[in-house]
């Protein structure tokens, strides 16, 4: 069962929190597994970003043993909330000995984090040329930028079909993505803004590599075998119709790049839009 920390946490309301540089206040925390959690925080009034971009967030590091001074400990995090949201959402791993996540996993509503309001990134619609079908390929917390893009009206204006694949080791690690996609069906605001039943354009393809689930295997292997296309009832990748975004660990990104280029797709960028893009920022 997921553990959700309510916004109005009594302890958080009275706990004194030191002011941090570029400070934002945590409003909600939800833990999914012993490795994954999400949190929401206030959004700077001046922050403008495109769905799919990332920012630097963090906490103050431990005091220097000699000087006692602290330095900000920052990492790149994709913004999981869409560009129109009044708050910011992030999806994170927990690394026991990770310099940042070993501390970040213990935040509670009312605590403060550092957020540098300078969004950047390649997983944006502007980096792709027009197409008919878009693929979002994610592993683990690489789902985060797609959580933003799945709630972005432009995604459904630009494409007839939206396919999101999410590969994790265990079933519990799919919870964040599955819950988000299910919630789209009942999201009155999005159904009104984008169009009633917009979520029917989405094809969700979750897989696991260790724990038994309805679909097992690495997405790259399932592409090579043709299973993913057979399962979804879609045509194989082609440069005329398909556009793609990739966000995962480095080996996954490189292998998918190779597969997409074998299919004839060309890598794009903000300065030169093409048929697929890859996120190059990594967390710990």
Spans of 5+ residues with little confidence (pLDDT < 50)? 8-17
Termini gap: 27 Å
The SSE string, one letter per element, is EHEEEEEHEEHHEHHEHHEHE
Beta-strand percent range: 25-35%
Structural Rg: 19 Å
Largest sheet: 7 strands, antiparallel
TL;DR of this structure?
The protein has 284 residues and is of the alpha/beta class.
Description of the molecule:
- The strands form two sheets. Strands 1, 2, 3, 4, 5, 6 and 7 form a seven-stranded antiparallel sheet that branches.
- The chain has 284 residues and is an alpha/beta fold.
- About 4% of the residues have low confidence.
What attributes does this structure have?
284 residues; alpha/beta; 7-stranded antiparallel sheet; 5-stranded parallel sheet; 9 helices
Strand and helix layout:
Blueprint: E1 3-5, H1 10-14, E2 23-31, E3 36-42, E4 54-60, E5 72-78, E6 87-93, H2 101-104, E7 112-120, E8 133-139, H3 144-149, H4 153-158, E9 161-168, H5 175-184, H6 188-194, E10 202-208, H7 219-225, H8 227-232, E11 242-247, H9 250-262, E12 276-278
Parallel strand pairs: 8-9, 8-11, 9-10, 11-12
Antiparallel strand pairs: 1-2, 2-3, 2-7, 3-6, 4-5, 4-7
């Amino acid at each position: 069962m997921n553990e959700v920390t309510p916004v109005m946490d009594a302890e958080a309301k009275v706990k004194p929190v030191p002011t941090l540089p570029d400070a934002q206040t945590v409003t909600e925390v939800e833990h999914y597994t012993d490795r994954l959690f999400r949190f929401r925080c206030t959004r700077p009034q001046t922050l403008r970003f495109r769905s799919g971009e990332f920012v630097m967030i963090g906490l103050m590091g431990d005091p220097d043993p000699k000087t006692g001074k602290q330095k900000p400990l920052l990492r790149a995090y994709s913004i999981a909330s869409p560009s129109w949201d009044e708050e910011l959402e992030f999806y994170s791993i927990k690394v026991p000995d990770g310099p940042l996540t070993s501390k970040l996993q213990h935040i509670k509503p009312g605590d403060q984090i550092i957020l540098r309001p300078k969004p950047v990134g390649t997983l944006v619609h502007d980096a792709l040329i027009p197409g008919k079908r878009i693929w979002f390929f994610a592993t683990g917390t690489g789902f985060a930028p797609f959580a933003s893009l799945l709630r972005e009206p432009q995604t459904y204006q630009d494409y007839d079909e939206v396919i999101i694949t999410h590969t994790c080791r265990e079933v519990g690690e799919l919870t964040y993505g599955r819950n988000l996609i299910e919630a789209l069906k009942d999201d009155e605001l999005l159904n009104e803004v984008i169009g009633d039943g917009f979520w029917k354009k989405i094809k969700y393809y979750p897989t696991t590599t260790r724990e038994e689930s309805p679909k097992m295997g690495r997405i790259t292997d399932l592409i090579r075998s043709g299973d993913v296309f057979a399962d979804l009832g879609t045509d194989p990748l082609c440069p005329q119709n398909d556009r793609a975004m990739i966000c995962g660990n480095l080996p996954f990104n490189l292998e998918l790049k190779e597969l997409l280029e074998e299919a004839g797709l060309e890598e794009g960028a903000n300065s030169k839009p093409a048929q697929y893009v890859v996120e190059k920022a990594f967390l710990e």
